[in-house]
Design brief:
Helix content is about 50%, strand content about 5%. With about 170 residues, it is mostly helical. Helix 4 crosses helix 5.
Length: about 170
Amino acid sequence: MQVNLRSFKQKVRHHQKAFKRYLGALAKNPPKDLDKTAAKIDTEVWQEIDCLSCANCCKKMTPTFTTKDIKRISTHLEMSADEFIDKWLVYEKDDKDWINKKQPCQFLSKETHMCSIYEVRPSDCSGFPHLKKKDMPSYMHWHQQNISYCPATFKMVEKMIERAVKPLKSK
């Protein structure tokens, strides 16, 4: 299904705080079957969300580039790792991460929303938005951030709330 970013942004404005609180509560007291539930919901989400109609992650966020990513991508682009870094990346001292110098991502096609290095894209991109990661509670902080950028993450939280996936009661 085509993503309407204007509508998505309005939904985020209305639900962001509540969704972040909900995810925080799930992280503190996750139900036993959370990973299994997330895997089911993940399948449903991707039947409803078309990433190529959105690409908001590539427009508004930057992946972190590992040393392996830099080597793989620079080889693919037929340049040295140093040339790749000089041209496209900046080192974030606080987080100790290599990230894009600018947004939207330099590898995103504005016309098709496709990635020009899709086959060798950073591992951060290939796993995004991390909806069905094992041990989901350890990814809740990412989901709390991603609901503002990713309609798939937002949809996952909506579905979890609809299904009444609730945090366990504190003991």
